[in-house]
Design goal:
By secondary structure, this protein is of the alpha+beta class. It has one domain. 33% of the residues lie in helices and 21% in strands. A six-stranded antiparallel sheet has the order 1-2-3-4-5-6, with helices on both faces. A hairpin with a 7-residue loop joins strand 4 and strand 5. The longest helix is centred in the middle third of the chain and has 18 residues. It is globular. The protein starts with a helix and ends with a helix.
Length: 186
């Protein structure tokens, strides 16, 4: 399923309260397209920019791409990039930048994105194509009950997304604990 599929998906039933709705262009595009591409282009650079005091400037640069994509698809923008929060939290011995998004409203929108560097910064092994960053998301999910449901997903490359199944309640602590289970060697 491509970007346009998520942006233009609309409910088929007349009762919008019981049917899935499309993810917001800006929310989805930032989390699953623009940020993903930046991270997989150069993991150490993207993670260090997000972890720096100038992270707002880096988010603003990424947001310009979001605006361009949403404008191309004639979709409105409702998220304020100033509401995107950055947490620097180690995951085991690995550096991690946890991005807290504005509250999701639709399926596939992310509560959090964890970018965990799993490389030795000195040897720059990321240049040989090895997997040196874990890009995990905690997303709003729909189900059969009224309770809040989440799912854990992971971009393993620009082209490959995998689901890790149901996720925890959307809190920083619970997400970091789940990320640790997935990333830290046992």
């Amino acid at each position: 399923m491509g970007l346009l599929d998520f942006i233009t998906r609309r409910s088929k039933a007349n009762d919008e309260s019981s049917s899935p709705r499309a993810a917001r262009c800006d929310h989805y595009t930032f989390s699953h397209v623009v940020l993903r591409d930046s991270v997989f282009d150069n993991p150490p650079h993207a993670v260090s920019q997000l972890a720096s005091a100038g992270s707002g400037d880096f988010i603003a640069l990424l947001w310009e791409q979001v605006l361009s994509i949403c404008q191309h698809f004639q979709q409105k923008v409702s998220v304020n990039p100033d509401d995107i929060l950055i947490h620097k939290i180690p995951v085991g011995t690995f550096p991690c930048v946890l991005i807290e998004m504005p509250t999701p409203q639709f399926e596939t929108e992310a509560f959090f994105i964890a970018l965990v560097l799993t490389l030795d910064m000195a040897d720059q092994s990321w240049k040989d194509g090895s997997r040196v960053v874990r890009f995990l998301t905690l997303e709003f999910a729909t189900g059969n009950h009224q309770d809040l449901q989440t799912s854990i997903g992971e971009w393993t490359s620009r082209e490959r997304y995998i689901s890790h199944g149901p996720g925890p309640y959307p809190s920083v602590d619970q997400f970091v604990a789940k990320v640790s289970e997935l990333v830290v060697p046992k």
